[in-house]
Amino acid sequence: TATELYKEIDNIMKPNITFLKQCRPLSISMSNAIRYLKREVISFGRSLSLEEIRTSIEEMVDDFININFTLHPKAISETANKKIRDGDVILTYSHSKLVEKVLLDAAAQGKKIKVIVADGRVQNLGRSLCPGLVAAGIHSTYILLSAVSQVLPSVTKVLLGCDGVMANGCVLANVGTSQVALLAKSYNKPVVVCCETYKFTERVQTDSFVYNELSDPDDLVTTGRQAQPLADWRDLSSLCLLNLVYDLTPASLVDSIITEISEIPPTSVPVVLRLHNMGDPSLAL
Question: Taking the C-alpha atoms of 58, 60, 61 and 63 in order, what is their torsion angle to the nearest 10 degrees?
Answer without folding.
Answer: 120
